[in-house]
Design brief:
It contains no helices and five strands. By secondary structure, it is mainly beta. It has one domain. Strands 4-3-2-1-5 form a five-stranded antiparallel beta sheet, with no helix packed on it. The protein is globular, with a radius of gyration of 12 Å. The two termini are 17 Å apart.
Length: 69
């Protein structure tokens, strides 16, 4: 799996896993075994697990992440 780099308030973070509802053409992406998602209520923000440069992993809303080239 290729990690994607994003900017969060000017700091580079890598996307570990993001919540998506599974479907036949789009199965669940690979995630660490300790991370289990519960289905969010309709209209809830999409969440993502992001890894900071210092090694900590945080689950936060996907909103606010900007793609880093």
């Amino acid at each position: 799996m290729t990690t994607r780099a994003y900017l969060l308030r000017g700091e580079r973070v890598e996307l570990v896993c993001r919540f998506v509802l599974p479907s036949k053409p789009r199965p669940l992406p690979p995630c660490p075994p300790w991370l289990t998602w519960a289905a969010p209520p309709p209209g809830a923000p999409r969440n993502a697990a992001v890894a900071y440069a210092d090694g900590r992993i945080v689950v936060r809303p996907f909103r606010g992440l900007r793609r880093h080239t």
